[in-house]
Every structure is written in structure tokens, then in C-alpha cells.
Amino acid sequence: MSFARLILSLTEGMGVSIYIFVVTLLVSLPLGLIVSFGRMSRNPVISGITKIYISIMRGTPLMLQLMVVYFGPYYIFGIKVSNGYRIWAALIGFAINYAAYFAEIYRSGIQSIPKGQYEAAQILGYSRVQTFFVIILPQVIKRILPSVTNEVITLVKDTSLAFTISVAEMFTTAKALASSQTSMMPFVAAACFYYVFNAVVAWGMDFLEKKMSYYN
Description:
The protein has about 220 residues and is an all-alpha fold. The protein has helices spanning about 5-40, 45-60, 60-75, 85-110, 115-125, 130-160, 170-180, 185-210.
């Protein structure tokens, strides 16, 4: 296989990796905020359920979670799934896993805000919802950006775990090409792709951090 065809094949796989990355962020970031509310809830049932969920997601390998999401419907409920379910299983697995991590990041950010902020908002006549979304959340986002950046960069690399359920993302493509050609070149090329992808994401997050540091 020529170098041009190798790059073209990996580019197709990279498109799947980027798709998993983008959808995971779009779902897990708001879901993580909701879970963080449950984690901080004064209701012991809601708080307990979210604690267990976060504990399971953070305490078991993402690879295993992907396998449970994909094979679970058949082995647990006897539901047959089509090949098209693979990508859905990957998206679901990644989203619920990263939501747990983001939930703890949100929680740490929210709990770091001084109570005086809430009291000042109450004096100004803000409702609880307005207080959170207008005053608290912007400060939380600014504080948690470094931690979120670490998780986002990790997600770039974790997309390769979709190979566990045979999703044809870039690592799966590179592994198949390396096996058929008995060559390490596909892995080297894939490593370069991942590095560039990560560099772009890191640059974007760094740019966002600088934009948010408006009081510095």
C-alpha cells in the first residue's frame, strides 16, 4: 500500500474518532453537570444513587464498560443488536463514563465558590436558578477549565478503546493495516495523527483558558 493510501485510510478512521470525541463532549459535559447536582443533593436516595454511579464509572475500566453496553442487551435481556449498534454503544459508553468524571469536577468547582456569592445574589433579588446560571456557573467554568482540559486530552486518546467493540476508528484501522502489511508504519502514522489531534485540542483549550482569565 502506498503512503498516500495509508494516510487516506487512516483519515477515514480519524473521522470516526473525531465523531466519538465530539459527541462524547456534547453529551457528557451537560450530563456531568446534572449528575453533580444529584451528587450534592440533600436527598439521601438521589445522592446515594449518584455516588454509586460515579464510583462504578470511575472504578471500572472504560474498556469493560464499552463491552457491557454493547453485549449487555443480548446477554442480559436477550435482545439481538445489529452491527449499527456498535457506534451507538461506543457513544453511550464514553458519554456515561466521562459524565462521571466531569460531575466530580463540576462538584469541586461549585463547592469552591464562597457562600457570600449566593448571599449577595439573594440580596440583589436573583432567584436560585438565576444565581446559579448567571453568577455561579461562569465562575465555576473558569475554575475547572484546567481539570476539564486534562479530561478532554485523555478523551482524545481513549477514543482508541472503541476497537474493543470493533468500531472502525483510527486505531482499529491502523491495527488492521499493520497486520495485513506486517509493518509498523500504520502505527507510526496513527501516532502522528493522534499527536496532531491532541495538539489542536490542547491549543483550543489553552486559548479558552486565556479567554476566561479576564481578571488576571
